[in-house]
From TrEMBL:
Subcellular localization(s) per the UniProt record: Periplasm
Signal sequence, renumbered to the chain: 1-26
Main location as per UniProt: periplasm
Gene Ontology CC annotations of this record: periplasmic space
The protein, known as: Multiple sugar transport system substrate-binding protein
Family: Belongs to the bacterial solute-binding protein 1 family.
Pfam families attached to this UniProt entry: SBP_bac_8
Biological classification of the source: Bacteria, Pseudomonadati, Pseudomonadota, Alphaproteobacteria, Hyphomicrobiales
Keywords: Periplasm, Signal, Sugar transport, Transport
Any one biological process term the GO annotation gives: transmembrane transport
Database matches in InterPro entries: Bact_solute-bd_prot1, SBP, SBP_1_CS, TAT_signal
Top-rank taxon: Bacteria
Length: 428
C-alpha cells in the first residue's frame, strides 16, 4: 500500500537525475510510423495530450501520433473497435473497466518492457500493483488520485453552515445538504447531485462498512441489504430536497460536463481529486476539496489511492515497441510532465511530481496537497475488477439507479434487482 512516507513530494527520496535519457529508437525508424492514441476528456486534456504527442513526434522523427477522442460514447466506440479487431495502438482506461479489458486480452501484458523500455525506478512505490491483472501488468498508471468532494466555499459561508471536513459523516452531510438547498433558495439548484449511480462513491461507501464492490473471486462483495441502505439514503435525500431529482440525475453521465455542479444545478460534487481544475475552469464560485463523508469515526474512511487513468497497449498493435516508448515518454519524460501538469491526477513519477509542483497554479496544488493529506487515511486498493464489471456498471448499476430515481423501483426492490443482475452478468 502506498503510504504517506512514500507519497510525499518532499524529501531526499526525490533526488534529481532520475529521469534518464530516452532510447535510441528514433535512429531505427526508417520511414513514417503512425501511432493511434484514443482517449476521452475535457478540452484541456485534449490540448495537453496533443502537446505531449507533438513533443514525442519531435523527439522521434518519422513518427506521427494520430489523436482520436470521444465523449460519453467512448466506451461504445471502444467496444466496437475491440470486436472488430481495430483497437488503437494505445487507449485510455479507468480502474472500473481496466481489468475487464485485460482479461479479454485486449490489453497487452507490459511486463517485458518494465524496467527496460518503460522505466519504473522512479514510479511511486506500489503504483504497478494498481494495474496488475491476474499477475500481469496490463497498463501503465498515468497518475494517482482518490475519491473526493468538491464544494463552493462561498455558498457554505453565506448559509452559515460549517463546511465539510474529514469528520463529516453521511448523516451530517444529508442534514447540511437539505439546509443548503433551502438557503440557496433558487429554482433548479440543489446542494448536490444524486450520486446513487456513482460506482466510485458506492465503492467508498461499501469500504466504510468493510464490504467490497467485487471480491477476489470476481463476485459481488455486497448484499441486497447493503444496496438497499445505499438507495434508501439517496431516495430520502432527494425527497427532502437535498439532492437533484430524477430529471436532473438522468442527464448526469458521470462526466465533468454533465455533472450538476457544472450545469449549474448543484454546489457540491462527489468526484475524483484530479478533476478539481476541470470543474473550477467552468464553475464560477471558489471550490475547495475534501474527502467524502465517513460512516463514523470508528469505521474505515473508504479512501484508497487509485490509478487516475491508465494507458494500455492493444494486443493487436502493429507497433507495440514504439507504443511502449510513448508510454515511457508520457509518464517519465520531464517535458511531458510539465505539459500534462496534474490534469489527469498527481504524476506517478516522483521526480516529475517534484519538478512540476512549483509551476502549477493554486488550484492544481490543492489536488497535490489533498493526495498527500489523506496518506494516513487510505486503505488497500480493492481487488481487480472482474470480467463483466463494465457490463454490470452500464446495464445494471446505472439503470437501476435511474429506475429508483423515477419511482419505478423502491429501494428494497432496487437492491434486489441490482444483486440479481450482478449475479447474472458476473455468473455467480
Amino acid at each position: 500500500m502506498i503510504n504517506r512516507r512514500q507519497m510525499l513530494l518532499n524529501g531526499a527520496m526525490l533526488g534529481a537525475g532520475a529521469i534518464a535519457s530516452f532510447s535510441n529508437l528514433a535512429a531505427a525508424i526508417a520511414q513514417e510510423t503512425r501511432l493511434r492514441l484514443y482517449w476521452w476528456g475535457t478540452p484541456d486534456r485534449l490540448k495537453r495530450t496533443q502537446g505531449v504527442s507533438e513533443l514525442f513526434s519531435q523527439k522521434y522523427a518519422g513518427v506521427t501520433v494520430n489523436a482520436e477522442t470521444a465523449g460519453s460514447d467512448y466506451w461504445t466506440k471502444l467496444t466496437t473497435m475491440m470486436a472488430g479487431g481495430n483497437l488503437p495502438d494505445i487507449f485510455q482506461l479507468e480502474p472500473g473497466t481496466f481489468a475487464d479489458y485485460g482479461r479479454r486480452n485486449a490489453a497487452l501484458p507490459l511486463d517485458p518492457y518494465l524496467g527496460k523500455t518503460i522505466r519504473t525506478d522512479r514510479l511511486a512505490p506500489g503504483a504497478l500493483d494498481l494495474v496488475r491483472v491476474d499477475g500481469k501488468v496490463r497498463g501503465i498508471p498515468i497518475a494517482l488520485n482518490a475519491c473526493a468532494m468538491l464544494y463552493d466555499t462561498d455558498v457554505f459561508s453565506k448559509a452559515g453552515i460549517k463546511p465539510p471536513s474529514d469528520d463529516t459523516t453521511w448523516d451530517d452531510f444529508a442534514k447540511d445538504c437539505i439546509e443548503l438547498t433551502k438557503s440557496i433558495g433558487k429554482d433548479n439548484v440543489w446542494a448536490v447531485g444524486n450520486c446513487s449511480h456513482y460506482n466510485s462513491v458506492f465503492t467508498a461507501w461499501l469500504k466504510q462498512r468493510d464490504k467490497l464492490m467485487f471480491t477476489e473471486e470476481g463476485h459481488l462483495g455486497f448484499t441486497a441489504d447493503d444496496a438497499t441502505e445505499w438507495y434508501e439514503y439517496w431516495t430520502a435525500l432527494a425527497k427532502q430536497g437535498g439532492c437533484t431529482p430524477a430529471e436532473i440525475q438522468s442527464m448526469d453521465k458521470r462526466l465533468v460536463e454533465t455533472n450538476p455542479l457544472t450545469t449549474g444545478n448543484a454546489v457540491i460534487a462527489l468526484t475524483y481529486s484530479n478533476l478539481l481544475p476541470a470543474y473550477q475552469a467552468v464553475y464560477k464560485g471558489p471550490l475547495e476539496i475534501v474527502a467524502p463523508p465517513i460512516k463514523d469515526a470508528k469505521a474505515p474512511t473508504g479512501l484508497f489511492y487509485r490509478p487516475a487513468l491508465i494507458w494500455s497497449i492493444a494486443t493487436t498493435s502493429k507497433n507495440p515497441d514504439l507504443a511502449a516508448e510513448f508510454l515511457d515518454f508520457f509518464i517519465n519524460g520531464m517535458e511531458a510532465g510539465k505539459v500534462l501538469g496534474i490534469e489527469r491526477g498527481v504524476p506517478v513519477n516522483l521526480d516529475v511530481q517534484q519538478a512540476i509542483t512549483p509551476d502549477i497554479n493554486a488550484i492544481a496544488k490543492k489536488t497535490v496537497n489533498f493526495i498527500n493529506a489523506i496518506a494516513d487515511r487510505v486503505g488497500p486498493y480493492p481487488p481487480p475488477i472482474p470480467l463483466g464489471a463494465a457490463e454490470f456498471d452500464t446495464r445494471a448499476f446505472m439503470p437501476v439507479a435511474q429506475k429508483l430515481a423515477f419511482g419505478s423501483l423502491t429501494p428494497a426492490e432496487a437492491g434486489k434487482e441490482l444483486i440479481a443482475q450482478g449475479k447474472r452478468i458476473l455468473k455467480g
